[in-house]
Amino acid sequence: MSSESSDTPDSLRPDANRTQPTAAVLLIGNELLSGRTQDSNLAYIAKALVARGIRLQEARVIADVPDAIISAVNELRRSTTYLFTTGGIGPTHDDITAECIASAFGVELPVNAEAEAILLDYFKARDIEPNADRLRMARIPEGAALVDNPVSAAPGFRMDNVFVFAGVPRIMQSMLDSVLPQLASGLVMHSVSVSCNLGEGTVASAFRELQARYPSTELGSYPGKDGKLSQLSLVARGPDPDELQELRLALVSMITDLGGQVL
């Protein structure tokens, strides 16, 4: 049995007057859809947003197709507080995210003087030729603010509520970390989990009744294995740590009543 929530300061306890910011993630790249590249960016973004009290509502993976990118950007930026995109801001012909963001907002895509200076300094320090392809990474939609890239210099950018990051995980992580302080915070979601030796079919009915008793808390069941032994993790997520501890005890009682064992 484990608990992922502990004593919580009053400042982090739920406040009905606080709004809940929302977010969407758009993972862009043919390599993701072909299976050539396995994404790790979504998990990093999701964990960072949860810790800040931002609810991730949707994530999509789409190809390097301009109409698809523009359509998705316009839909998601209007339906959520924040939209984060990854991929497609490098120097090659298939890096088209900057163009698509500019088109989505109906603005030009000029060379940004600040971004160009950052790149030129980076290239000079490493004796890298600043050719036209490399300087494509200095093209930033008009009106956008730069997002720092301490790993490889080429900046991301923020356009209104849209944050555009690189697809390389280490770079994306550094970009996200740099903008987190700019984001609104909401109710932080806490969680508790209880593992048992029962199957989902055994607990389903009683688990459903618990969900009805605690409508403001999300309940989920996740089967897995611990070595060769099957086990079921029952997880509760919600903004109220006290209610979660109450629900953890209810889960333990449910498992015992069903003849199971808490692991």
Commentary on this structure:
It is a single chain. The chain has 263 residues and is of the alpha/beta class. It folds into 2 domains: 20-182, MoaB/Mog-like domain (Molybdenum Cofactor Biosythetic Enzyme, Chain A, 3-Layer(aba) Sandwich), CATH 3.40.980; 190-257, Ribosomal protein S10 (Alpha-Beta Plaits, 2-Layer Sandwich), CATH 3.30.70. It contains 9 helices and 10 strands. The strands form 2 sheets. A 6-stranded mixed beta sheet has the order 3-2-4-7-6-5, with helices on both faces. β9 (218-226) and β10 form a beta hairpin. The model is unreliable at 1-17 (pLDDT under 50).
- Please state how the strands of the largest beta sheet are arranged side by side: 3-2-4-7-6-5
Alpha-carbon distance between the two ends: 5 Å
Architecture per CATH nomenclature, i.e. the level-2 architecture of the largest domain? 3-Layer(aba) Sandwich
> Measured on Cα atoms, how large is the radius of gyration?
23 Å
Main sheet summary: 6 strands, mixed
Q: In terms of per-residue confidence, which ranges show pLDDT below 50 for 5 or more consecutive residues?
A: 1-17
| Beta-strand fraction estimate | 15-25%
Average pLDDT figure: 92
Tally of DSSP β-strands: 10
* Total count of domains: 2
Give the SSE string. EEHHEHEHHHEEEHEHEEH
CATH-wise, what's the superfamily of the largest domain? MoaB/Mog-like domain
Globally, the shape reads: elongated
- Which structural class do the helices and strands define? alpha/beta
The CATH class of the largest domain is Alpha Beta
What is the helical fraction, as a range of percent? 25-40%
Briefly note the CATH topology name of the largest domain. Answer: Molybdenum Cofactor Biosythetic Enzyme, Chain A
- The helix count comes to 9
